[in-house]
């Protein structure tokens, strides 16, 4: 299998880092594309193939792959312009339905997020200089912490309740 999820619970970050702050990562943003399904390795593989091809064409025209900063927290994944810190995309955690790194290309990682306005599923694809698996695990840890926070609040945390409702629908 090219894409897989780790089941062990040895996290790399402290719970405080993800719940009170965020974990930043630098990556190149290959882009996002609409996908038919909210999850699945084939869905992601097709999106990666499509965006790599489009990127190849743009590169031949002299366009560079834009660099972005990812900020991962229990609230979601923000995609920012690294110099100005302007938010380009804000993907709330409860809208992310699938996240994977490519086992055949260690630099590539993806996640599928339901767009809040169009309700379409978009697959975001990144090239992260060999830390794709770490980024995937960090997003997994954010999900784990958000769920634990929800359980500890007894379901009273409204924001977390929305996230869990979204997770349970999947």
From TrEMBL:
Keywords (A to Z) from UniProt: Cytoplasm, Phagocytosis
InterPro entries: Adapter_Engulfment-Domain, PH-like_dom_sf, PTB/PI_dom
Source organism superkingdom: Eukaryota
Subcellular location: Cytoplasm
GO terms, biological process: phagocytosis
UniProt domain PID: residue ranges: 25-153
GO cellular component: cytoplasm
Protein family per UniProt: Belongs to the ced-6 family.
Protein's name according to its UniProt entry: PTB domain-containing engulfment adapter protein 1
Gene expressing this chain: B8ZZ72
């Amino acid at each position: 299998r090219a894409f897989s999820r780790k089941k062990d619970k040895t996290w790399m970050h402290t719970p405080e880092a993800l719940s009170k702050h965020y974990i930043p990562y630098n990556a190149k943003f290959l882009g996002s594309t609409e996908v038919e399904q909210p999850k699945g390795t084939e869905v992601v593989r097709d999106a990666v193939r499509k965006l790599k091809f489009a990127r190849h064409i743009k590169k031949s025209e002299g366009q560079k792959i834009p660099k972005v900063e990812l900020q991962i927290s229990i609230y979601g994944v923000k995609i920012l312009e690294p110099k100005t810190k302007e938010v380009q995309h804000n993907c709330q955690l409860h809208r992310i339905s699938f996240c994977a790194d490519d086992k055949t290309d260690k630099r590539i990682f993806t996640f599928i997020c339901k767009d809040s306005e169009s309700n379409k599923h978009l697959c975001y694809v990144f090239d992260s200089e060999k830390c794709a698996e770490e980024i995937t695990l960090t997003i997994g840890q954010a999900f784990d912490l958000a769920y634990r926070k929800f359980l500890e609040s007894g379901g009273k945390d409204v924001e977390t309740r929305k996230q869990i409702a979204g997770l349970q629908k999947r």
